[in-house]
Amino acid sequence: MTDHELAARLATEAGALLLNVRVELAEASADDRKAAGDKRSHEFLMAALGAARPGDAVLSEEGTDDPVRLRSERVWIVDPLDGTREFSELGRDDWAVHVALWQGGELVAGAVALPAQGMTLATPTVAHPPAFDGAPRVVVSRTRPPAVALQVRDALDGTLVEMGSAGAKVAAVVQGRADVYVHAGGQYEWDSAAPVAVARAAGLFTSRIDGTPLIYNQTDPKLPDLVVCRPELAEAVLAVTRGN
After folding, report:
1. Could you tell me the domains of the chain?
2. Spatial CA neighbour of 111 closest among 7, 193, 15, 6
3. Rounded CA gap, 100 and 80, in Å?
4. What is the pLDDT of residues 179-210, one digit of tens each?
5. Minimal CA–CA distance to 7: which of 59, 76, 65?
6. pTM
7. PROSITE patterns of this UniProt entry (predicted)?
């Protein structure tokens, strides 16, 4: 099984597990669903990666950061449940599972499962988003849209699309349901590694908000900002974001 196939399979299977958690804990509190989803998906992914790729390191949002990854040639970067709040709200579908592989300084494989949408987007080939020539649609958090995203919306004379998790937002750009995703103010490598791998495979532009490359498997896994957009919009978006 290739690394691409493994990433897709594990993200999809973790997603199926999470759907079962939702059913099992439908009458429980939202906090209980959050805790169970994070824990069970993390445990599944750690066990599955340990069995399939025992020589590789893993960086998971829900795990203890093992510095061995900094000396490893291959590191899986996973978010067992991206969009915990949305997952805990029964009926919402804007949450995801992220599984990415970093090797030799680059993201080389990745998958974003959208379990409640019945879909997994995965490398090596992802369909490019369909053409769109209307007002650019800027996807933002439904509860806390960053100021830079609002500035981009204004500069491009665009519209806002509200959505939950980072993975769901990037997937919306990949699918052609949005055109720009800009974030600033707090994310980690596991929030963006798999989505960025998928976005690149779909021909989208990705970078930090200052235009510099997104770099993974760093000592400090905080990676607080990013841009994912249609390539034809990159120059206009960066003209705004570089000032932040």
Report:
1. 3-122 (3.30.540.10), 137-241 (3.40.190.80)
2. 7
3. 11
4. 999 999 889 999 999 999 999 999 999 999 99
5. 76
6. 0.95
7. IMP_1
